[in-house]
Design brief:
Blueprint: E1 7-11, H1 15-26, E2 35-40, H2 46-59, E3 67-72, H3 79-94, E4 96-101, E5 104-106, H4 110-120, E6 127-130, E7 145-148, E8 156-159, H5 160-163, H6 172-177, H7 180-183, H8 191-199, H9 207-216, E9 220-224, E10 229-231, H10 265-291
Parallel strand pairs: 1-2, 1-4, 2-3, 6-9
Antiparallel strand pairs: 4-8, 5-10, 7-9
Length: 293
């Protein structure tokens, strides 16, 4: 493959997580041929200063890539603004991009998969992004790769001509809310609730704007049958994570990239069912926790 997409990694104050993310990327076969850009946000407060400085000391000495460029913010931008600014600059310069945050561990095949997809579907009008994440690790009969009308923020890639449709404007949500059930992915995930949280400043998310932007274009995202990334950001400490079992199925796997550029009903049904089960499970756990408060 020629003209590999640059990798853009956003980090903040989690040195252990950042190290796991970088070390996994270094094991990718295309790492030495890929450019890596690292955006380091500055400390939000005094408590974050030490860990931010520790992250910065680590990223100053990263090797194993064709070129490493470190951008250290001189003030705290916050994740949303930092990602929007960084993605816009890099994708406009290079034409395509692979984006990671500092809690995503990748399989050794991740970069090859992402670059193959970015090359194959670059000129497909309806394809807006690709992700290395998968909802379907436990689905036996799903396609090797498949399209969903659903974006992912857990590793993703896109192109300059698709990112230009990204809108960071609250006005975008009014049209989405006219189609609430579809916007909530057949009522399987509460994106409407995320919009409400964003509008009322309970969260600050770039991802809900990206999803809304792609949703209004009826855009597609390509997913693999088995996840090529695992999120290690839910341990709460940065030092206690279990074995990355979900990546094992994707190691050294050659994925057949689908020629069916559409969201197949059966695949959508699989994912809606999965998300509904996850929502019920999380609701049950929340109720149990509330009992013991």
């Amino acid at each position: 493959m020629n003209n590999l997409a640059p990798i853009v990694l956003f980090v903040y104050n989690r040195p252990w997580h950042t190290q796991q993310t970088v070390e996994a990327l270094q094991k990718n076969e295309l790492a030495s041929k890929s450019e890596l850009f690292i955006y380091s946000d500055d400390a939000k407060n005094f408590e974050a200063r030490i860990s931010v400085d520790e992250v910065r000391a680590y990223i100053d000495n990263i090797d194993g890539f064709k070129k490493v460029t470190v951008i250290k913010r001189e003030k705290n931008w916050g994740l949303a603004d930092s990602i929007i600014d960084g993605v816009t600059k890099i994708v406009n310069e290079y034409g395509k991009i692979i984006v990671l945050e500092d809690d995503l561990v990748t399989s050794p095949y991740f970069l090859r998969f992402m670059n193959e997809v970015l090359e194959k579907y670059e000129f497909e009008e309806d394809v807006y992004s690709v992700t290395g994440y998968s909802f379907s690790n436990d689905v036996a009969d799903i396609d090797d790769t498949y399209f969903l009308k659903l974006t992912s923020s857990w590793s993703w890639g896109t192109w300059k001509d698709k990112w230009k449709d990204f809108t960071y404007d609250n006005a975008i949500f009014s049209k989405c809310l006219e189609r609430k059930e579809a916007f909530n992915y057949d009522a399987s995930y509460n994106y409407v609730g995320m919009v409400d949280d964003q509008l009322n400043r309970r969260i600050n998310s770039w991802a809900i704007y990206w999803y809304a932007s792609v949703f209004l274009k009826n855009g597609l995202t390509l997913y693999p049958a088995f996840s090529l990334i695992e999120n290690i950001g839910f341990d709460g400490s940065g030092t206690h994570c279990s074995k990355l079992k979900n990546l094992e199925k994707s190691y050294n796997k050659m994925y057949l990239l689908t020629d069916e550029v559409e969201e197949k009903i059966i695949n959508r049904q699989h994912i809606v069912s999965y998300l509904n089960q996850q929502y019920k499970r999380q609701s049950f756990i929340g109720k149990i926790k509330s009992i013991f408060k």
